[in-house]
Amino acid sequence: MKSSVAVLPPFLVLDQLLQSWLLEDIGRGDRTTQSLLSQHPTRGEAKWIAKAPGIIAGLPIAARVFQLLNNQVDFVNVTDEGTLCEPGQVIAEINGSLDTLLMGERVALNLVMRLSGIASLTNIYVEKIADLPAQLVDTRKTTPGLRILEKYATALGGAMNHRMGLDDAVMIKDNHIVAAGGIGEAITRIRSHVPYPLTIEVETENLAQVREALQYKADIIMLDNMPLSMMSEAVLLIRDEDDRVKIEASGNVTLETVRAVAKTGVDYISTSAPITQSKWLDLSMRMV
Q: Any idea where the Quinolinate phosphoribosyl transferase C-terminal domain is (predicted)?
């Protein structure tokens, strides 16, 4: 796996999200669990078991879900975060009040299944280009409310995070170029407003736009939906003109095409597929 850093945001950031998801599921109370156990409180034990192979992601988040309900719950990772699991493998063991285990089960499992699916597909993409210099990066095509966790999952799978939001960097896309009347005008207007050290990236669709982006000193040039032959020519043009400029390829990247794109010599390949096309990793909780 290529070098990438998956840093889970602090719970100061995450707790509000997790609490809102618990409230959505629990509503005015867990009718089943509370009716069954309110007069007979007891402790329980459970195991999380994988039902399909994949990369496990989100276990610290799952532990936090249960602890927000009851800080006496003991959540033990049996499988390490970011490692491959096989069907039948025990992923985690949980010990605590039975009502807490039952109330937190669905939110915790949903998050880990979703994030593990993303990490798993990301890793497949990353392995396709593991012997080439290009680095896979994600995009802002994420589920509202889940971006911070979905991008954590792509990093765990071996990708690099692209900008988290609109305030992370300047990316001049096709509609910005139309609004400004050209790449040069867009860069000129924006540069005077950009605080240090934000970079300026420009989306280009042809060699004329690449030359204009170079002329106006873009920091990163995206080659968007270019045929491979044009992309290779653009890479040579940029390297010859200014080797400090980073090159990103984007647009319709698939498992079948990602290696060919990497061979053109680009620095980064951005794709939304690991997030938008991933399948949840099937996990289940079984009471002991």
A: 118-286
Mark whether 205 is an active-site residue.
no
82 phi, psi to nearest 5 deg: 85, 5
Active site residue 106: yes
173 is catalytic: yes
> pTM for this structure?
0.95
Rounded to a whole number of angstroms, the distance between the first and last alpha carbons of the chain is 36
Phi and psi at residue 246, to the nearest 5°:
-85, 150
pLDDT of 250 > 80? The answer is yes
Contact 55, 118 (CB under 8 A): no
Cα atoms found within 13 Å of the Cα of residue 232, Cβ hemisphere only: 7
Catalytic residue list contains 212: no
Contacts for 121 with CB less than 8 Å, ≥ 6 apart: 157, 273, 274, 277, 278, 279
Q: Which residue has the tokens 């990353």?
A: 126
